[in-house]
Target: 3-phenylpropionate/trans-cinnamate dioxygenase ferredoxin subunit
Amino acid sequence: MAFERVCGLSDVPENGALRVELADLDVAVVRYEGEVYAVQDVCSHAEVPLSEGDVETFDGAPIIECWLHGSCFDLRTGEPTNLPATEPVDVYPVRVQGDDVLVDTESDGRLPLASGN
Model:
């Protein structure tokens, strides 16, 4: 694992997302109910930034909604929770150290329950 600092925790709105553009990857860093998640910042259905969508709970799972067509993705697994998306988005392990948000961008993007502090 290769965790790297991607932003400050204070940069990420509570119950919201921040787009982080890295050299070869765009990540949505999401804060929701005290947890921090990192997912691929593009909807698997329509190539739209997920970081522009709403963050909420669906059937007890934290999700981010694509603003264009309404597809929602579980922030822990990347799996879509409704149509039109049928393919998951990548999720990345997260660590929070003080105000630093660290993301393992070298992971394969398919780790279950990738959130963590």
